[in-house]
Amino acid sequence: MIELGQLLAGPFTGTILAYFGAEVIKVEPPGGDPIRGWRVVQDGTSLWYRSLGRNKKSVTLDLKSERGRELVLQLLDSADVLVENFRPGAMEEWGLGPEVVKARNPRLVYARISGYGQTGPNANKPGYASVTEGFGGFRYINGEPGHAPVRPNISLGDTVAALHAALGITLALLQRGKPDGGEGQVVDVALYESIFNLLEGIVPEYDGAGVIREPSGTTVTGIVPTNTYHCDDGRYVVIGGNGDSIFKRLMTAAGRSDMAADPELANNAGRVRHEHEIDKALSLWCGQHSSRHVIFVLEQAGVPVGPIYSVADMLQDPQYQARGMFEQVEIDGKPLKIPAILPRLADTPGRTDWPGGALGSHNREVLQGLLGLDEEELEQLAAQGVIGPAGDPA
Predict the structure, then answer these.
(1) Does residue 390 lie within any of the structural domains?
(2) Same domain? 19 vs 155
(3) Is there a catalytic annotation at residue 158?
(4) Domain match, 165 and 267 both
(5) What is the pLDDT of residues 188-210, one digit of tens each?
(6) The 3-state secondary structure of the chain, one letter per residue
(7) Which domain CATH number covers 78?
(8) Residue tagged active-site, from 158, 244, 279, 392
């Protein structure tokens, strides 16, 4: 697989596939993927990139140079998959569009990720995750009523798009492997459409009943009770007591047997009508106890309940440890934990073989081993700036 592009959506697609055994050659500009310098940087490389660049072979090629594009085409001649997340039209301008590449390699699966997709009136608009989360409908429902929509402190649109791209690539490869398949195809992933795919019943509820789902803070519209409650130790717990029998156990455990037995609250429709009273009772009970106590009591009663975890909490929790959710790598002899990549496969699990490494660290292996360039050609490419600074072709 050849990974072209930078920042998050395209590279995370490559991370997923590399984790499960794909040979991923990440083509970076001579200056490197910007994420190498984002957020927490140690020894010249961000800790984020150590996770995002895992299991990838880094090759530096300047796609703005004719020779750099020629070398990319040669790499694509024998590749199964290409993933790119440049603005629509950029690959065509460079002579690397699907028509050109697939004429040389018909079996190639050509995955494209962009803000709004390759077609439509918005195709050429810049579309970062922050913008497409709003356009895709997520930001509208996320937050408190009457206040500005809230952004989660991650690039959700990019990550969700990468998951869709990895799924699309897998489906295209399965189709290619069928007796009547034979060729690859273009996988067109839009960030806003990936977010749109998360909207559950919002579209049919509007079209069929004219209902526009509004933001609802820490609750979920039309399902009661499911909310976040503050405890007397300053921590929060999440309680999901919306099943009919679960609700009875919840309110009994919370000292409100009267509400547990109330026929008006026996089903979700009735509980929705009395959401305020139910949440008031649960808030009062939680506010009188520690989060540890609330969780213990409700778990004993068989009620879904849990804490709000920070990353520090995750690293200490035995469930995370038992499930192998962290992997330890070494960076210049120093240990670093990075997250495992899901899903979990029983017979062919993924793994991290190496963390994201130095820029261009696989230039010789790929350009000499796969394309047959000799040492003199590498030195010329370095001197011309096609693969990086002169004198550092490796």
Answers:
(1) no
(2) yes
(3) yes
(4) no
(5) 999 999 999 999 999 999 999 99
(6) CEEECCCCHHHHHHHHHHHCCCCEEEEECCCCCHHHHCCCEECCEEHHHHHHCCCEEEEECCCCCHHHHHHHHHHHHCCCEEEECCCCCHHHHCCCCHHHHHHHCCCCEEEEEECCCCCCCCCCCCCCHHHHHHHCCHHHHCCCCCCCCCCCCCCHHHHHHHHHHHHHHHHHHHHHCCCCCCCCCEEEEEHHHHHHCCCCCHHHHHHHHCCCCCCCCCCECCECCEEEEECCCCCEEEEECCCHHHHHHHHHHCCCHHHHCCHHHCCHHHHHHCHHHHHHHHHHHHCCCCHHHHHHHHHHCCCCEEECCCHHHHHHCHHHHHCCCEEEEEECCEEEEEECCCCCCCCCCCCCCCCCCCCCCCHHHHHHHCCCCCHHHHHHHHHCCCCCCCCCCC
(7) 3.40.50.10540
(8) 158
Structural domain of residue 35, as residue ranges?
2-197+326-383
Q: Are residues 257 and 379 in the same domain?
A: no
252-286 pLDDT, tens digit per residue, is 999 999 999 999 999 999 999 999 999 999 999 99
